[in-house]
Amino acid sequence: MKKQRIVLSLFCSFYLILSFADNSLNKEKQTTGVNSNPLFYLQGIYSYRDFKFKSVKSANYNSFQGHSNFYALGANNLQIMRGLTGGLFIYRADMSLGSDVLIFPTSLIQTTQSIHNNSLFGHVTKSIKPHLFVDFYGGYGQNKLNYLTLMAPNTSNQQIASATNHSNNWFVSLSTLYNTIFHNFLITGAFSVLHNEVKQNGFTYFFRPNLVSNTIAPLTNKSSYLLENAEIGYKITQTIAPFINGGLIQVVQFSNSRPLISGTLVSTAPEFNLNQNGFQVGGGVNFTLKKVTLRLEQQYVQRTNVYHSNLSIVSLKIAMD
């Protein structure tokens, strides 16, 4: 039985990671005959993402690039009642980025930013009929954000500003999932509606050497998306099953309570700063040996022509009888 298919194309690389890894890793329940009815799955996930964004208009430009690390640990396929299962994960994400912003007539602004996130994620899956499931998931996280900004760098007017801030985010989603087996092909499709909100506290920049302060108002970022995804795998042997997948990311609603500070992000998921549609494609291989499944995956994400991201995912799942 395949469950979540989308949870991280968007989130801290967080959603897509959890969904793709968990979703495909559940296939062996039907296809290998090993551990066909485990008590639950113990699962660990690690991912590394690099990303870049660049938008140019005349002499003005806004660009940033960076990387993030994501770690998750949890239990899945927990039986709640007949036809209803669930899972619970804790995860941490650490992100670093650098940005360059030039908007005439102001001087160049360079910012270095780091974000550290700790979150809790859970989901429940209901079996509607053979091969068809409904999945509801949600999570809550807290972020610590550090900023170091240079205004007019390498000039006589250079100013240095630093700040620390905190924010929290929550998200919910409802997905319809379909999976089937045709000969040795493993086919999954999913349609999801995802809503995310980030609430950031107000904070103050302190500039040196002029000893000037700049207070930044609190921020609420709201975004909603439609996600359509599909994956096709092929079981070569009982141990090896390569796969390919892809999907669309469509913005339904996007708003900020105040303008964003150019060159900075509100969470460890750069995608939540972007009001642009996009797509993702990927592939990898599952290795299954008795109770253990290792999944290796590579993802590419693009939002219009301004944002590009590469995501490497390693997931290890152990069936607990």
UniProtKB/TrEMBL annotation:
Keywords: Signal. Residues 37-309 form the Autotransporter domain. SMART domains: Autotransporter. Residues 1-21 form the signal peptide. It holds the Pfam family Autotransporter. This is Autotransporter domain-containing protein. It comes from Legionella cincinnatiensis.
